[in-house]
Design a protein that fits this description.
alpha+beta, 6 helices, 99 residues, 3 strands, globular, Arc Repressor Mutant, subunit A
Length: 99
């Protein structure tokens, strides 16, 4: 057990994986593309970075981010009047390890 904890791995119980599996089936194609983009980096994204990376309109991207936020899958931080977005840590681990 001590060696497992020393590896600094995040463990996702099967119940959480099942919840995320179910939730993933309810997401739109846009939401999935936002998630996949955010899962590739270990930093926060500005709206402009997301917009420049995906072939969707500004309003579609805003709606996609808001929808993910309502599901608690995206975190938002404000700095100097700019919003920065990232995936929830547990959900990001699920995306990286199970997709």
């Amino acid at each position: 057990m001590k060696s497992f904890l020393a590896e600094n791995l995040l463990f996702l119980p099967q119940e959480i994986v099942l919840v995320f599996d179910n939730l993933l089936t309810r997401l739109s194609a846009l939401e999935i593309q936002i998630i996949m983009l955010m899962s590739k980096e270990n930093n926060f994204f500005t709206f402009k970075q997301i917009q420049n990376s995906l072939p969707f309109s500004s309003s579609e991207i805003i709606n996609g981010i808001l929808s993910l936020d309502r599901r608690y899958l995206v975190q938002e931080k404000q700095k100097n009047g700019i919003s920065y977005f990232s995936l929830d840590l547990l959900f990001k681990e699920y995306i990286i390890n199970f997709l």
